[in-house]
Amino acid sequence: MRKVEICGRKVPAIGIGTWNMGSSRDTKDLQIATIRSGIEAGARVIDTAEMYGSGDSEILVGKAIKPYPREQMFLISKFLPSNATKKRIEKSLDHSLKNLQTDYLDLYLYHWRGITPLLETVTALQRLQDSGKIRAWGVSNFDTSDLEELWQLPNGKNVQTNEVLYNLANRGIDFDLIPWQKDHHLPLIAYSPVGSGTAASHGKSIKSDPQVQAIAQKYKVSSYQIMLAWVIRNGFTIAIPQTNNPEHMKDNIAAAKIKLTASDLRLLDQAFPAPTKKQILAKL
What we know:
Elements: E1 3-6, E2 9-12, E3 16-17, H1 28-40, E4 45-47, H2 56-64, E5 74-79, H3 89-100, E6 107-110, H4 118-131, E7 137-140, H5 144-151, E8 162-165, H6 177-183, E9 188-191, E10 200-201, E11 204-205, H7 210-219, H8 223-231, E12 237-239, H9 246-254, H10 262-271
Parallel strand pairs: 3-4, 4-5, 5-6, 6-7, 7-8, 8-9, 9-12
Antiparallel strand pairs: 1-2, 10-11
């Protein structure tokens, strides 16, 4: 199973996303079972945010991980730009910790950049790390210019990841952001790594693309698993797909065992070409 080093730990390259989870009473038990299915299959990274269901996702994750040793988990949550000030950030973190039923986060991410001066936010994050309430901090939805600015700030180089939208249909970051992060040894977390499964690139569906289907048949796996294997192909990316189906969750985690060949990658590049110029950072 492919692993990625992040925050000094090696974790499986496919984790668990929880966007749109936890708010429906009718599906909570199934969603808890789904998260546990992923953990049992080997997942360790679980990504959530205070914004997801206004805390419902965090509460769900807290319940789902209760049977497991906390030190085995790698918990990520995110704070909103409105809470990025030195006065609000710790209160926001404390609320997330309470929801998750834990006394620390492995990684705390700035969900996207707002109007608070970046230096103020970074200084506050470093203070939280020094206090032990978070083991590390990172950012999300930062483009190359944002990371360059961050890198110049005191403690800016302590950033541990950038979480962004990345899949076969949305690979604009291959032009400049991924090379920058590789050069600076900054791991990537890919959200929405299969899109909707039907997301189109140049008018084509990923899931139904003949090349994707042919490669899936070659390995006797699903098209979704090939999409995930592609996202983590570079050895420094963690994918966090979301599902409400325990069996799909197991398949997601198993995709970390698929090693695409150079020939496979060429075929996928032909079907979904890499960008040839700078693109605006795609976001959801």
